[in-house]
Amino acid sequence: MRIALVSEGTYPYAMGGVSVWCEQLIRGMPDHRWEVVALTVDGTEKPVFDRPANLDRVHSIPLWGGRPPGRRPQRGLPVRSGRPGVGFIESYEVFLRALVTPLESTRSQAGAVNRSTFLLALRGLFEYATDGGDLSGGMLSNQALGMMLDAWRSLRVDEAGPALTVADALEAAWLISHMMRPLSMPPVRADIVHSSMNGLAMLVGMASTWAYGTPLVLSEHGIYLRERYISYLHDKAPHPVRVLVLSFFRSLAGAAYLISHALAPHSQYNRRWQLHNGADPERMWTMYNGVDPDEFPPAVGEPETPTISFMGRIDPLKDLHTLIRAFALVRAEIPNARLRIFGGTPAANQVYHASCQALIDELGLAGHATLEGRVGSAVEAYHAGNLVALTSISEGFPYTVVEAMACGRPTVCTNVGGVAEAVGDTGIVVAPRDVPAVAAACVKLLHDRELRLRLGAVARARVLERFTLQRSLQAYRDIYERLVAQPTVSAPLAPPRGQAQGRVRVPDHRIRPGVATVNARLPRQRDRETPERPNAAPVPRRAPSPSGWPGRPASAGPAGEPMDETPRLVGESR
Amino acid sequence: MTSGDRTVPTSPDDDADPTRRRGGTVTAEAAPAHGDAQPRETERTILLPRISTDPVDDLVERVRPRLGRVVDALQVAAALEADGHTDRTAQVEYGYADVFRLASEVFWRMGPPSPVDDQAGTSATTGAHRWDGLRTIAHGPLYLLPGVAFPAVLTVVGRPGLVLGLVLAGTLGWIYSGVAAYSAYQLLGQRRARSASRILRMAALTGPLLGVVLGAAMLPYGGLPLAVMMVGQLAYQMASTLLIFYRRESWLAVAMFPVVLSGTAYLVVGGTALRRSAVVAAAVCVLATLAAALWAARPTTTAEEPASRQPLWPEASVLLGVAGYGLCSAALLFHAQVPYLLGRLDIAAAAMPLFVSMGFVEWRTSRFPAIAIALTRRARRPGEFVAAVWRMIGRDVAACLAVPAVLGAALLAGLWNAGVLSAAGTVMTVAHVALAGAYYLAFLLAGRGRYGWLCLSIALVVALHVGVGALLGAAPVLGQGDAALVDTSLYLGSIVLLQALFALGLVPVIGQVRHYR
């Protein structure tokens, strides 16, 4: 089986939980052939992982450098006016409608329509690019910018916030056009496309599904959309730009849930966000990250000096400031305590690294709290502490916690993402950004050796029971085999469940508020005997012409798909 | 929702005021009573903070400073969770089913985002910016500095071969410096300052070598003095390119100051000694300028350059376009001027206003992108932006015509006073004034990378000028007759046509908003 694993900003060019998981997956299934599609910044990144023997190729799709190699838009006239074609205009108008329309709740019927509309528009834009259209050029054309401004004024007429200017429209279109680059690349050919995260990486899978009918698996470690929301909290971009870009992320995440054949949240916590953004619970099953217990042996003893250990990259999401401030309180109680922060600093986080060091100096903790840098073996970092702390404000299902538990160390963690699910009753979980609570938990554990040892022992037992690598790999192996085992000889003409098909068309080329001007081929009700496997049947160039948005069948899900058809994957891998 | 109000007295409209009901923290003096401009202290009415017992109100006020710029309820949910709120706290502390529903309520109560800080204001012109403008405007006179030494050099080199040598060296220098500067700017754009420096220094050193080759080829026509002059000319062109690239115009002026002094002295006083000193000064100053340029271009950092997927050198087709543009520009100027250089002072001098005002033209061009970006912030639609851009171009072209026009008028007055002004000289001066406007448009085209259009347009008008002149028997570049007025009139017409062609070339690109991010 050939599997294309898609990542953004992680494997094989950066260290981190998702990268570790990617490598585990590839090395853990040596009987499958793999290729990796990596969304990168500008393509100059160097791999930081050794290439596994069964990894055949690594494609890099630079999102921000010059135009990536591969399919190039056809050149027309010698003078390029930047005027996009009709195929672009039709799809882009629907795209904008989905992007600009204010959405009170993603769980509403409007939210479902928004996701389906957005997915259809994405497909139209993909086909425009496939036909040789210059997607980026089209989105940045004056005509497209004018459409964006018109859409904003029509659909957000009641909005009291700052109005969209031409400069804002250009900025938003420029950002989104770069992020849409994967749609202009040749679709990857594989038996399965497995995206290691939601968001831009899913565009790669969407393209393959549309072009070849490739089944698409989506794993979410953290919640992509949630992390984008947090990163944009302090962004300096004008308000309308943030609205458009975050709407793009939200709609894309929802569309990805719609088109995925299998969705694997890596914690129960993640399920909440996915369900809230329209994921179909019948195609979801929770998968926990696993570690090899042999690689993380239990610590034999404890350091002589009371030590709090942190292991992970230096990143604002880890909220090391809270940990450092909490450590200052710990030292007030335990003067000889140490804080050892292990982990490398990505180039983009050098400023944050400096701020951590400055905070250490400012609080008079120099020599007691140390930024140790990258460490040869994570085991050393876990064994170096009496306890392991993680004070993140956002997490998926962090390896560092599970690894520390495997090493028999108690943990002090903040309650974000799947952390509480991982820790259970083997450590202390407090609220994020709660400095006194973190400090109190650390002091409690550092004072109580018996408690530490007991929690450490049950932590390792919990890992052996629930979070082993073998268990995790087997679950994914089952998914792959079930997806490719679907009959392919008589490929069905109907699309799979929840997958919107067709090309959108807007009759009068004008945005009309309150009018759903989307013509599309709709997901058809299928017979039970119809195989699940999507097909590579030719995509109709135009919708068959249903008027307006369809009414939902009585037993339909949010996007109009029948609710009674349940892939047999549900729950079986838990 | 709210209770325990301590507002005394309460306006009947208070309860209808949603901002007060939501905010609950407003403390303000009441407005004075009607007709009572100076209310007594005892009559002051104090609005005390409303105290809300709804914990969501309290939550809203706590998160407002950090979440004032959120875009939707989901972003509020993400932020609340990052602050430690969970479904359980949403239920227990706030009475909502989960964080998402709590976030929706918080988002609604926060009201619309503040427009403050969103609009990036156009920064006021600072002293540094003003100096930048003056620095660019000074390019014109700087281009003319070596010209002061030409009369002295002319007497050494002699007339045979002089014009051909000047044209060949000037054209080659134009092309070579243009290509080097273009490549260096591209590298600078990729944050490869060291590579840019290397290319410029290589060009500055190889430029004079090209002059040696060219001079050797010209030995039969002008001998060693001509060859040396060509080497010096190329060295100066490359050196000035480097100094202008690194914004060291003042170094250029200082290095060439002795040339100005000695050349002027020779022009005013004459004499063998002054002539010799002018020639020696020219040679020494050119060498000094070259040395200063190499010093200015030395790499200032040893830091490794960032890796880039883009090749070190621009595409060959682009470099060819840049070189072609340099060649065509030289041809446009020289083909009309050369026949008159040694025989018709009023026609030969017609280019002076253009040269002096070229810095002004460059300055207007350099302002264009910043002003266009400011326009994108004001325009409501791309169409409005396009119209504003063309209005700006119109104003700039007018300004670029006005400056050389004033200078040209002064020149014509001087020539008339000297009794050497002819109708052909006047027309030629007008043509060069028009050429300033054409160059402004050409710079805009070059900025958009439309070198092909530039080359074709120039080639077309040169061909028309020469071709129609040949038909009328007025093509001095082909050795035809003495019809200077017809020739210069045709040249003027070709320049006006060139302006139109350049403007036409700008139509599809200059109004595209995407160029002004």
Quick gist of this model?
The complex is a heterodimer of chains A (574) and B (517). Chain A is α/β, with parallel strands linked by helices and 574 residues long.
Structural overview:
The complex is a heterodimer of chains A (574) and B (517). With 574 residues, chain A is an alpha/beta fold. Chain A has helices spanning 17-28, 86-100, 109-130, 135-139, 142-155, 166-179, 201-212, 224-231, 239-259, 268-276, 320-333, 350-362, 378-383, 399-406, 419-423, 435-447, 449-466, 469-484, and strands spanning 2-8, 33-40, 55-62, 192-195, 216-220, 262-265, 307-311, 338-342, 369-373, 387-390, 411-414, 427-430. In chain A, strands 3-2-1-4-5-6 form a six-stranded parallel beta sheet, with helices on both faces. A six-stranded parallel beta sheet of chain A has the order 9-8-7-10-11-12, sandwiched between helices. In chain A, α11 links the parallel β7 (307-311) and β8. Chain B is built from 20 helices and two strands. Chain B is an all-alpha fold. A two-stranded antiparallel sheet of chain B has the order 1-2. In chain B, 70% of the residues lie in helices and 1% in strands. Chains A and B meet through α5, α6, α8 and α9 of A and α3, α16 and α17 of B.
